[in-house]
């Protein structure tokens, strides 16, 4: 397979022609934007048909559906939200995947060459690249149906991320059944599919049950627990049907972190980290346990006055992936939290 020629990057022709190189033509821009809208624009969903493109279930390209997200086992509801990595890692801001047939790429490049934006030098280099055998001849039209042109995609929502500019290679050809060039790390593969599915994971809200329920008292342990029926593993599958690749990313809850909303409080346990044990997060309060220490909870040391404290409950989710190739592994843990108001009152003493 011919190597991608580095000197042909978009950087050689300046911002205007570089933008043309990445998008190629107005038709490609429209196609790419059409794909962006469905993947992230409508928030969480429960698609039962992973290939349904009209309702925003997939990214689209000129070749076919490029990445299809099956969210049928994802978290749902208005309070569901995306997890945040516990490390500095983030899913890819851009990637390369099949996009053009030879005829489509030729038509788009002819539009670019016919415009006034590219410089003569850029026109000459790209014509050599696609037409004159340096390294491709006549857009590889003799290989039509036996492979496709791969090009850059920007992950929806990451357009302003500087990392989205890392995918600045020229479109390159990949024969059907072959792996993309090893010198292009952003080329789509099972692990990258799993990382893109990570960004699609939605988990339920983390509002905890408290006892006492409406208002607690100073120096009175407050029990905290979660409805474990909501906190089951969720998953999203990302596929490239054209390549026969699929990866599933699964998030499973492992712990609950309680932050009281004030320094004048102690948590149970002292770390504030309530581990999930036997499928349960914390323990519901039961009559007769008033003198016991809750396995998960908080004790406030002063009143909230006329207001309330913002208790934050954050779930940590362990995330891993599997794929149709047999590859798999772990991805960084993710967190999702929510605030809730807690009223803390002074215990009233009655003097006789």
Strand content: 25-35%
Overall form: elongated
**Main sheet?**
9 strands, antiparallel
Poorly predicted runs are 1-65
Helix residue percentage = 10-25%
Number of helix segments?
A: 5
Radius of gyration: 27 Å
Q: Write down the secondary-structure element order.
A: HHEEEEEHHEEHEEEEEEEEEEEEE
The total beta strand count reads 20
SS class: alpha+beta
Our measurement of the CA-to-CA distance between the termini, rounded to an integer number of angstroms, reads 94 Å
User: Please, what is the average pLDDT?
Assistant: 81
Structure overview:
The protein is of the alpha+beta class and about 350 residues long. About 15% of the residues lie in helices and about 30% in strands. The protein has five helices and 20 strands. The chain has helices at about 15-25, 25-40, 100-115, 120-130, 190-200, and strands at about 60, 65-70, 80, 85, 95-100, 145-155, 170-175, 200-205, 210, 215, 220-225, 235-240, 245-260, 265-270, 275, 280, 295-300, 310-325, 330-340, 345. The strands form five sheets. Strands 1, 2, 4, 12, 13, 15, 16, 18 and 19 form a nine-stranded antiparallel β-sheet that branches. Strand 1 and strand 2 form a beta hairpin. It is elongated and about 90 Å long. Mean pLDDT is about 80; it is low at about 1-65.
